[in-house]
């Protein structure tokens, strides 16, 4: 990381001496403060492509890392409805850090998704008291890690080509298949250990500071008692277990929306202060901000993002309600209906977000393409992560529900 690559690296804790927020509005305001800090030098940090230790420090200092943690352990005690909006706010300032925070929330909740009551209590106390950040070596397009038994322990071995969180995480979620069976096992382990080696090979077009490179897992041991959701070495299944995918798909939609909002905010500020009116149109204006096509363009983009926000918030409220309800209450049909809402929200923000992050160049002018302006970071970030799974399949899921009344079967991407 260069000396000028991050404002965050030189900041003392800006929240020392302040009380943590106590309600959703306060946490959203805190997230906006974090976003403003990150936005100051997001382009420089992206260019430096360093490991975001300082940025994660800001997340921890702000209290956002323990937003979902129990209040009895010093956490925020907030709901997923608030967490989704917080992710969005942080992504407005830096899409990479919004992604890190969103993945952290999902993996911090993974214990509630699949673990026993005793395991949930232990994990939530551990990460909340320690203010610890989660990463995850769970990439379904790779071969699963191999899990072997050694007495009362399980041993994880293998390689994952993507592992978001990487070196900046304190805890890593592992997933593998028990050797000789088709039984999948999740476990949470400390990141800093000899058996977890990150290659540092994440060098993509966008989301460059997410620490999403490959990782080698060699002989990482956990007690059988730490295998999430297993009692007497037998998994206890619930429909609730399958909420991990729609929950994280909505994480995606929210940081996509935050990226698009950041692009529009940056572009409008540029147009107001720096764009020049076009002098050859026949209805010449003194300011670019008075030109009809500029006004129309921004109006179109903003109206689409407002509509996307409403759709995403609706899905967030729906899934938050079931995530915080008793796990036994969720039916397969209800789970499928929520997955369809999430798919609809995701497909809309991908298409509208990509339009926004491209169209802003037409509305700001040729000089806004300068690397120093950095408008390209928004398109690069959104374009990169929105390739996570093909959008046509999301459209098909919504179409099957509307036309045939069918809900998608749970999978690694639905």
Describe the structure.
By secondary structure, the chain is of the alpha+beta class. The protein has three domains: 126 residues, Acyl-CoA dehydrogenase/oxidase, N-terminal domain (Butyryl-Coa Dehydrogenase, subunit A, domain 1, Orthogonal Bundle); 101 residues, Butyryl-CoA Dehydrogenase, subunit A, domain 2, CATH 2.40.110.10; 166 residues, Butyryl-CoA Dehydrogenase, subunit A, domain 3 (Up-down Bundle). The protein is 48% helix and 12% strand. The chain is built from twelve helices and nine strands. Strands 1, 2, 3, 4, 5, 6 and 7 form a seven-stranded mixed β-sheet that branches. Strand 8 and strand 9 form a beta hairpin. Helix 1 packs antiparallel against helix 3, helix 4 runs parallel beside helix 8 and helix 8 packs parallel to helix 10. The radius of gyration is 22 Å and the shape is globular. The N terminus is likely disordered. This is Monooxygenase. Keywords: Flavoprotein, Monooxygenase, Oxidoreductase. It holds the Pfam family Acyl-CoA_dh_N. One of its GO terms (biological process) is L-leucine catabolic process. One of its GO terms (molecular function) is monooxygenase activity.
